[in-house]
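Table S2 (text version). Query chain:
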Amino acid sequence: MSGGNHESDFQLIKLSKSIDENALVFGGEIYSGWMTHWGERRWGGTTFAKFKQQMSFLITTKKQFSLYMAYGGTNFGLTAGANAGIHNLDYEPMITSYDYDAVITEQGKTTEKFDLMLTLMSKYIRDPSIDVPDPIKTIQIATFTP
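Corresponding structure-token output:
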């Protein structure tokens, strides 16, 4: 299941329910954003409007899902990975950020997407209050020449 309010999702749900009316529907990797390759001019991500559509569909229809990524991070050294590109012809290394436009940034800041999820979920949980820790403080590094 892709997580969006897409016809393919409805078809998958209908098929699952036709086989077993008690079938669980689970979105295993619902993307809050997307990776960014070296040289790309845009930061990989899912627009807020698309994310809102996906989350509204999943939460209001009470589907189970897992966000990929819920919390951003950083890869170090040569661990960021790469894609092979179209037909395995292009090598596409990824930047070291593993943020993926996550609902919580690498620094620990909540985003507009986090606020949306909390608002949508608060209609279905007993105690919607949540203690969000302060983000990690930003430091400034003086300019230097290697």
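Notes on Table S2: Residues 14 and 21 are 9 Å apart (CA to CA). DSSP finds three helices and four strands in the chain.
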